[in-house]
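If you are new to this repository, start here. Below is one unmodified record pulled from the training split, so you can see the exact layout before writing a loader.
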Amino acid sequence: MVSFKKPRISLVVLSAAGASAALLLSACGGGTTTASSDTSSSAPSSSASPAATASSSPSTPGSSSATGAPAPGPAPDNGLCKAGDVALSLGQGDAGAGSAYRPLNIKNTSGKPCTIQGFPGVSYVGGDNGQQIGPPAFRSGEKGAAVKLNPGQSAAADIQFVQVRNFDPAVCKPTPVKGLRVYLPQETASNFLADPGTGCAGGNLPGNQLSVKTVHRA
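And here is the target side for that same chain:
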């Protein structure tokens, strides 16, 4: 009986030793997996950020460094006469019925042809800052055909200047003017034409102190 019990005791000891070894191996393997996962999850974010920044931060000529969008280039030349292409002058005209009629001469002083069509924007200006005096010129008649001006050629637009004494001074509010501000048709920049006189600063005139007709060939 003694020899029968000793093998059973040895088997139990061996089984317990095997279980302990298995637990130790399992514990070591689990720790290694967790550390590897933390490293792999953090490494891409730190290595990807510099790469993304480098690809978006460099600026190249003609592009915006903030958005990467192309910078706006110069406006295309549409062939229309611009403020810088012309010289303006007032010609001699006629007078009658309390008004003076004078041509606004528009000469192409640039080195290239340009085209002009329609009504110029005309208004009195005065003061030290070019303040507009009264309403702008009324557009009289219909829009004419386009006029092509080669370098040195001129077009004209007829302007009616109404005498301010035709209006009630209380309504007119007579005010000294230094000249005319002129916008060529379809142009956003203006030209100044010196022509001292008197205009109406009042905004409720019974008529038009200035009227302008369409551009025509001079």
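Two things worth knowing about this chain: Residues 2-56 form the longest helix (55 residues). The CA atoms of residues 10 and 16 lie 10 Å apart.
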